[in-house]
Amino acid sequence: MTTATTVPTGYAKELRLIIGGASITAEQRRSIAVHDPATGAEIGRLPIATDDDLRDALASTQRGFARWRATSAYDRAVVLRNAARLIRERVDAIGRILTLEQGKPLLESKLELQATADIFEWCGEEGRRAYGRVVPGRSESVRQTVLREPVGPVASFTPWNFPAITPGRKLAGALGAGCSIIIKPSEETPATALALFDALRDAGLPEDVVNVVFGDPPHISQTLLASPVIRKISFTGSIAVGKHLARLAADGMKRATLELGGHAPVIVSDKADLNRAVKMSVSAKFRNAGQVCVSPSRFFVHERIEKQFTEAFAAAASSLRVGHGLEEKTQMGSLANERRRDAIHELVLDASKRGGTLHTGGSPLDTPGFFYAPTVFSDVPGDARVLNDEPFGPIAVITPFRELSEAIARANALPYGLAAYAFTQDVAESIELGNRIEAGMIGINQFGIAFAELPFGGVKESGYGSEGGIEGLDGYLITKTVTVA
Description:
- The protein has 14 helices and 20 strands.
- It has a 7-stranded mixed sheet, with helices on both faces. Strands 9-8-7-10-11-19 form a 6-stranded mixed sheet, sandwiched between helices. A 3-stranded antiparallel sheet has the order 5-6-20, with no helix packed on it.
- It has helices at 51-69, 73-89, 91-102, 106-127, 165-177, 190-202, 217-226, 239-251, 274-285, 306-318, 338-353, 404-411, 427-436, 469-474, and strands at 16-19, 22-25, 31-35, 42-47, 133-135, 143-150, 154-157, 181-184, 210-212, 232-236, 255-259, 264-268, 296-302, 357-360, 375-378, 395-401, 419-423, 441-444, 463-464, 477-484.
- The longest helix is centred in the N-terminal third of the chain and has 22 residues, at 106-127.
- It has 2 domains: 16-260 and 462-484, 3-Layer(aba) Sandwich (Aldehyde Dehydrogenase, Chain A, domain 1); 264-451, Aldehyde Dehydrogenase, Chain A, domain 2 (3-Layer(aba) Sandwich), CATH 3.40.309.10.
- α4 packs parallel to α5.
């Protein structure tokens, strides 16, 4: 049964499953509510896939793989390039959808969509360059070749914090390599992913190549991964869920790409440009209200400049305009859901209880929706939860250090290894930081680490495999040796 819902202007008129090219709406299935996190209001009803739907999706993706792998890399690139063009043309409409269901400021939503279009374009072109090679044989009568071929149908799972770019990486990587894909986006942000599907369909993507399902995440993942149809999984999300999916994938010897949690350190040397470090750090920290897997969260600042850095950082954070993402002057939107707001407040209370000094923020805003004030701490002891658990919210913790080796050791102390950052104008320090920090991505004197042409992924418990760059496409390809006499 569904209930009447007032759809805000600009939000998707109809949420649906996409199975075998057909749309299944909330009127045809049991449904759940989708909310605007900035108001708490229900804005849509999302249908939940049945077991029959999942079986149909598996059969569809098997048909789609046979069709798509037989499509030339040139023609696949045309579809992805046209989809990128359509995303750019529709950026205003899709951006509004994204903000309404996720909460981030509209400008951030539009930039995310532009980056997603870049990924579609990049993967389409790289698919044309999935080169094999000819290896000289040991006899003139033998030809030895190495071929690159699509791995097969893919099952992918994406979270709510980046509803365009994260599904976009998985869709584009799979399609560029010649794979079909079943994608399960977050049930909290479904319409953005459906808008990406619409762009692919309108760009000429054949039926059955992409299926979109929603429902109970554990049940869907277990059902899809148990099927011999699926040959690869791609997951972005928590470490705990990533480990569980890795075990399920191992049972079927399925390839896996896992982009899991992070707790990114930022090392600010006394040789850094202090004003630049503060300005860029505040912008990066509170982007998407800190709900970013590569968000800077542990700031290690040299003791000579720590007081200046903290004062300037806290002043800049306290001046940020927090509000509904559709409001023009908003600089930080709401958290995506009530769970996140409550989790952030628990971390704040723990840090305060342990003696941390609160410089600004520290409480939810007294408004509708799930807003939390930009929060800055110093003097937080090392055993506080916020310094050990991924905060995934608008909290920054600043800690002084004396020697660079001390800062690097503290940066490497956690099991996370997704992203890390540093600020220094000293070339020798830059080289040392790049060599010694344990992370899959490191930004020095800037936070720009996520572009279509660069591999995106972590080490240690932050996962394995990459999305983006040529490495991202490699994850969807197998290597085949063929010798002919």
